[in-house]
Recover the amino acids of this structure.
């Protein structure tokens, strides 16, 4: 055979192995190899959570469809739903714990990912000294860091996008149907924190923050703690800015305030909802009374006592003082249409912070000693 | 023997591999290295010797660009240690030999391949194979000596022009030590690599290095060509006349160290002119010279410390 007498060939002049089999190169390969285990575990968690949401959401969806309670839920119960009370409550009783747990998982996951993956990522390099190994190779520190941050950020954006897509669908399925206050409306905290593009932005922010803290603190345990605290703080800061680009809208209604009744509650009618008629499912910011000269007197809530003659009862001394001049009631709110403005605002804020943190890391690594 | 490779790789004669000017590094209030003036010619194998905490590792870390000097400057082949060219031309093996514990040996070598354009897989694999290390073994499961071998493969595979090794062979068995030293010397000879190697084992350095630098208390105590040092020093033994001070007969020579045992005195000195024939003169070996310099502080420090502190607890050692 031809192979029988082939003499041993001298080694090829090139001393590098064949580059053909190398899909990834340079610092990118190193970064991916270093984070491989953690990223695979995080990926598995994402897939499991997505599967669980699809399963549970599917079951809930099926129940709602087969029992014809699409328009009926715990918060919105129009007259045609009168006959399906037991079905609505049965659904709630059956799954509300699972829905609550899932919501918490979605809220906690990005924080945990930042604290337990991103923070140790660089901190461990400093703690074990392997950063010196990387910094004494032929690539610059910035290039190394770019790969060290870029790979996890890229993978995080893919994973969190998948999770966000499923979670957005899931949130629509469970919203208002369960005794989980975070999931009552599009603007309640679980709904707004664990769905939409802002979820992706927040995951990226958590990773960038964890990396920056790891780079500064350089100790694994300490950086986990600091990252967790700072992530929560930043999360709330981003959340507080969610309506930055969604101006408050207002509706008004004409009212006449009742004169104070000297003897007490005679002529008292029922407590009624304010007649401003804000759109359904909107995030109410404030309710109040408005005088003819523009003074606003806020109210505690949107319920007010009404007398039998149709006039409204003043709940506060301030109202009584301006009773004569009060002509209108107002409700300021964010309509449902603001949901996506809110999400994209949060996404933008998170991505801005992420960019700033990455820039900080790149500056810092250059000067670090 | 002709060595074309060496001629190709070796930078022009007299070029400088490593140079420090007034280099100093302060950790909070303590100076780890101070007023360091060092010039290491290219192509030399230089031993960096000094007691623990003398600043050896600090000097190497500064030259590798891992630390930023508090004062002064360090250059590697004429450029700063963090420039692209310096990063490419230097390799640094830290004393604790950090490696990624979850990587296999093969993956560790691939790290070298991915991060270094001049990577030499052949030499790296040869070093690993000589130690009988399986390429698929996880680095974290290896013994300290085996990890040293992998770290060695990583720095030699980089094909550096300046190789800095900090206590490289401390945890390697004698056979492997000899073998790795052999590979190191062969590589240095073939490629004209400049090597800066720190070690406590003085005997190990004899015959290996042609340049030596002694660090003590963060300052350079001695630096020079080994042959010149050997030629420039003499070990003398003779009868000791008086009690204190240096014997009159040796007064005109520069005494590095003087030890008295009973009526006999032994001194290492830098002779200037003829030595009194009553003294028994021998040529010292490198270890004699290094130990003498390691034991005695630099002259300028002696005046600062004061003679009381010097002689306390070490009566047999007297410096000029």
């Amino acid at each position: 055979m031809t192979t029988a007498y082939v003499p041993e060939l001298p080694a090829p002049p090139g001393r590098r192995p064949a580059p053909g089999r190398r899909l990834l190169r340079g610092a990118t390969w190193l970064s991916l190899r270093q984070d491989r285990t953690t990223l695979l575990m995080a990926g598995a968690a994402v897939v499991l959570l997505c599967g669980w949401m699809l399963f549970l959401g599917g079951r809930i969806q099926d129940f709602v469809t087969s029992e014809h309670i699409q328009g009926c839920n715990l918060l919105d119960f129009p007259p045609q739903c009168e006959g399906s009370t037991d079905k609505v409550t049965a659904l709630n009783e059956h799954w509300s714990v699972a829905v609550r747990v899932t919501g918490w998982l979605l809220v906690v996951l990005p924080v945990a990912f930042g604290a337990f993956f991103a923070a140790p990522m660089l901190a461990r390099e400093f703690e074990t000294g392997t950063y010196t190994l990387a910094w004494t190779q032929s690539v610059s520190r910035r290039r190394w860091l770019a790969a060290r941050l870029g790979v996890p950020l890229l993978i995080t954006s893919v994973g969190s996008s998948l999770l966000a897509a499923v979670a957005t669908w899931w949130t629509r399925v469970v919203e208002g149907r369960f005794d989980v206050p975070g999931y009552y409306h599009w603007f309640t905290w679980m709904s707004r924190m664990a769905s939409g593009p802002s979820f992706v932005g927040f995951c990226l922010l958590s990773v960038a923050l964890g990396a920056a803290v790891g780079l500064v603190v350089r100790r694994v345990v300490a950086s986990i703690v600091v990252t967790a605290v700072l992530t929560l703080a930043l999360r709330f800061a981003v959340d507080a800015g969610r309506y930055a680009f969604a101006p408050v809208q207002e509706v008004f209604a004409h009212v006449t305030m009742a004169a104070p009744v000297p003897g007490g509650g005679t002529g008292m009618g029922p407590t009624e909802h304010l007649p401003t008629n804000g759109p359904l499912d909107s995030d109410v910011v404030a309710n109040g009374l408005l005088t003819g000269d523009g003074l606003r007197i806020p109210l505690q809530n949107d319920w007010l006592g009404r007398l039998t003659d149709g006039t409204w009862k003043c709940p506060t001394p301030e109202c009584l003082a301006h009773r004569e001049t009060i002509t209108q009631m107002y409700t300021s709110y964010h309509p449902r249409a603001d949901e996506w403005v809110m999400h994209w605002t949060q996404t933008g804020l998170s991505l801005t912070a992420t960019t700033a943190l990455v820039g900080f890391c790149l500056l810092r690594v250059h000067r670090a000693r | 023997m002709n060595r074309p490779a060496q001629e190709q790789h070796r930078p022009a004669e007299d070029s400088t591999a490593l140079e420090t000017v007034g280099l100093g590094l302060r950790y909070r209030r303590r100076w780890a290295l101070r007023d360091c003036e060092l010039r290491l010619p290219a192509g030399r194998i230089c031993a960096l010797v000094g007691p623990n905490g003398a600043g050896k590792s600090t000097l190497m870390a500064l030259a590798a660009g891992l630390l930023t000097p508090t004062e002064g400057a360090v250059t590697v082949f004429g450029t700063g240690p963090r420039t692209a060219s310096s990063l490419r031309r230097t390799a640094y093996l830290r004393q604790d030999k950090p490696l990624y514990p979850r990587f296999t040996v093969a993956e560790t070598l691939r790290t070298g391949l991915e991060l270094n354009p001049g990577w030499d897989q052949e030499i790296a694999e040869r070093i690993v194979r000589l130690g009988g290390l399986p390429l698929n073994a996880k680095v974290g499961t290896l013994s300290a000596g085996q990890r040293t071998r992998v770290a060695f493969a990583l720095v030699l595979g980089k094909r550096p022009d300046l190789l800095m090794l900090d206590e490289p062979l401390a945890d390697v068995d004698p056979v492997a030590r000899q073998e790795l030293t052999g590979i190191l010397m062969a590589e240095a000879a073939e490629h004209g690599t400049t090597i800066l190697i720190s070690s406590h084992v003085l005997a190990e350095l004899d015959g290996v290095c042609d340049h030596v630098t002694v660090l003590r208390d963060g300052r350079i105590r001695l630096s020079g060509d080994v042959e010149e040092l050997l030629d420039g020093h003499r070990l003398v033994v003779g009868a000791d006349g008086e009690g204190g001070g240096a014997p009159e007969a040796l007064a005109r020579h520069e005494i590095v160290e003087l030890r008295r045992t009973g009526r006999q005195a032994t001194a290492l000195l830098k002779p200037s002119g003829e030595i009194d024939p009553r003294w028994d003169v021998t040529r010292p070996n490198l270890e004699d010279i290094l130990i003498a310099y390691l034991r005695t502080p630099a002259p300028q420090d002696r005046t600062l410390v004061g003679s009381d502190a010097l002689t306390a607890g070490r009566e047999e050692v007297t410096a000029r």
